[in-house]
Amino acid sequence: MSVTVIRKAAWIVAYDPEAGTHTYLRDGDVAFDGDKIVHVGGTYEGAAETEIDGRARLVSPGLVNIHSHPSSEAMNKGFLDELGSPRLGMSSLYEFMPLFRCDDEGREACVQVTYSELLKSGVTTLVDLSVNWDGWIETFAASGLRGVVSPMYRSARWYTDNGHVVNYEWDEAAGKADMDAAVKTVEAAINHPSGRLSGMISPSQIDTCTPDLIADSFALAQEKGLPFQIHAAQSVVEFTEITRRHGVTPLEWLDSLGVLKPGAIIGHGIFLNDYPNVFWPEAQDFKLLQESGAAVAHCPTVFQRRGIAMNTVGRYIRGGVPVGIGTDTYPHNMLEEMRTALYLSRIMSKNPYDLRTSDIFDAATLGGAKVLGREDIGRLSVGAKADLFLADLTDPAMMPVRDPLRSLIYVAAERAVRDVFVDGRHVVVDGEVPAFDLPEALARLEAAQRRAEEQFATLDFAGRTHQDASPYVYGQA
Fold first, then answer.
1. Mean pLDDT, to the nearest integer, of 311-324?
2. Nearest to 57 by CA among 383, 312, 341, 412
3. Burial of 432 (0-12, 13-18, 19+ CB in 10 A)
4. Side-chain half-sphere of 271: how many Cα atoms within 13 Å?
5. Burial of residue 336, with CB atoms counted within 10 A of its CB: 0-12 exposed, 13-18 middle, 19 or more buried
6. CA atoms of 420 and 60, how far apart (whole Å)
7. What is residue 329's predicted lDDT score, i.e. its pLDDT?
8. Which residues sit opposite 388 in a β-bridge?
9. Where residue 1 falls among pLDDT bands split at 50, 70, 90?
């Protein structure tokens, strides 16, 4: 017997199968036996090996993060916070991000920091979109997360040598070889003895991949029964590049390749033909997306830094587009990401009713699970995986507690998260992640950031230092 019972939980976010969404339960028990939930609500009468006092706790399904880049993004803190390229649609993708690189020595630390931050914000399932690196699978398994290994590959790299034109250096053979290597990594993840790892087919970006690489990748994903994800409709530069090459929008081009279908996830999906920053009036991208069955990974924080926001995630959800939530970048905090999604949707629509808290919480749990083709995560129901977190209702940021999810999402965020379980394993214990030595990983990441600063000027076309590109908030005396 390995039953754990959370006794008399003050609030439970339970799954209601008739409504197809969550519902609140009060003063009840949640029990799990090994990796499966066996009881939700009311009193659990069976014997238990472990009992947890839930009287001051919110018990919630674990969050499902469908888009992140753990092997690079944590190191960008303090550099990209208010940086964009004015002559490249304010994106920092093309001029700056390729120059601020996490080296091999710092990569493991970057990943450990990211995994820890995500776990502490209630994430139990994570899609990790990284370039293949040694030690990835073992580090992912060690974290305790339910992991979706998603090695990225492409046929070309982008670069700029003047700050206003993006060039593409093509190597189709290398792209195919990297795809083959990605498939081997995915297979190794699926076969890992932890049983918590799976895979995703992920050609990097719509503008850096050949038509054959994209179409072949989607066909492979369908053949193997795996999800597929590609970055698309993520910038003005990309929208303009695809319309220049093909005379159609990015979504229209994916559709012409037979990729815009159920099973496909569009990373970001912001720049449709009706987006204010572009002008392509003949297309009907939103209708095309609605009718396709393809999903969207919504990651608002990384775009709001550049003055960009989806128009609007409330419209997508109401329109029946499958939407999941991702963090993409630092802070790796799903609760804050949900808050950002709620506020930006209201700002873009000028309507506080454009998007409700339940809509975004559903997207971060049930929606992400559905996008990944799973019905056993993102919910507290008998038979589902024991993936859940407990938040402290007595944390000052949670009080007064009228509605616990509102207190958690709009105010407390990760500060109130005390314990997280994945597959029934205790992976966050009283706010800490036992899998990693976080202070030590942060020290290694700090050192990696200093090395990246030194390298920056040697990579920049204009010979700028990191301080020239991203000046400190105040000068140093």
1. 97
2. 412
3. middle
4. 25
5. middle
6. 10
7. 95
8. 61, 421
9. low
SS (H, E, C) the chain: CCEEEEEEEEEEEEEECCCCEEEEEEEEEEEEECCEEEEECCCCCCCCCEEEECCCEEEEECEEEEEECCCCHHHHCCCCCCCCCCCCCCCCCCCCHHHCCCCHHHHHHHHHHHHHHHHHCCEEEEEEEECCCCCHHHHHHHHCCEEEEEEEECCEEEECCCCCCCEEEECHHHHHHHHHHHHHHHHHHHCCCCCCEEECEEECECCCCCHHHHHHHHHHHHHHCCCEEEEECCCHHHHHHHHHHHCCCHHHHHHHCCCCCCCEEEEECCCCCCCCCCCCCCCCHHHHHHHHCCEEEECHHHHHCCCCCCCCHHHHHHCCCCEEECCECCCCCHHHHHHHHHHHHHHHHCCCCCCCHHHHHHHHHHHHHHHCCCCCCCCCCCCCECCEEEEECCCHHHCCCCCHHHHHHHHHHHHHEEEEEECCEEEEECCECCCCCHHHHHHHHHHHHHHHHHHHHHHCCCCCCHHHHCCCCCCCC
Residue-wise over 44-59: b if at least 16 C-beta within 10 A, else e?
beeebeeebebebbbb
Give pLDDT tens digits for 436-466. Answer: 999 999 999 999 999 999 999 999 999 999 9
Distance CA 32, CA 61 (A): 13
Per-residue pLDDT tens for 76-106? 999 999 999 999 999 999 999 999 999 999 9
Q: How far does CA 303 lie from the centroid of its chain?
A: 13
CA dihedral 285, 286, 290, 294 (to 10 degrees): 60
Cis before 331? omega within 30:
yes
- In contact, 115 and 147? CB cutoff 8 Å: no
Residues 202, 229: contact at Cβ < 8 Å?
yes
